Amino acid sequence: MRLYLFFGPPGSGKGTQAKLITQEFENVFYLSTGDILRKHIKEQTDIGKKANEYIRQGLLVPSALINQIVINELNNGKDRDFILDGYPRTVDQLYFLIENKVIPFLTIFFDVPLNVLIERICFRRVCPNCNSIFHLIYQKPQNDEKCDYCGSKLIQRNDDNEEIVRKRYDVYTKETLPVIEEIRKQGIRIENIDATKNIEEIYREVRKFFL
Question: Of 55, 69, 155, 184, which is most buried with the most CB atoms under 10 A?
Fold first, then answer.
């Protein structure tokens, strides 16, 4: 199993790139803690109810709610490669992976400034059924605001507004960037990607790491 870590602030496009990779490379599985948590929230599980309170305030979900979910997913797919999106968010979560003998193969950092993130996120729409992502400026759905893939009505996430974007960026900078430094100290390879480019240009850079 090869484990790829995708890092970047919310709205940097790492989720879109991960899904493009899994469409081309069938042995690569995309594991997004955000998608997992939203599934729990939609199903109103105990984890979902607790996580929703943090997400609505623009805060990161505590490690205790997601560590075991992540390690279970990885252990159940040891014959596959994984892209982890949104994890580890803290140094402690990185240590949790290492202590469980899960050593990342490569870290890709999607670099994008705050002003670009605000434009991207506030016009973002998602499909609640198949989790496809669209943008009303850059990646418009073909039929009004319906999903091109399954026809479901697209929605705007509650946390896709400027106030929460700024708050999440601040939290991300303070809590997650130290993880990058620790990854460097651990000798894990890191590649920086200019994520202000368009989707196709970014993908050409990303896919070469999976060949």
Answer: 55
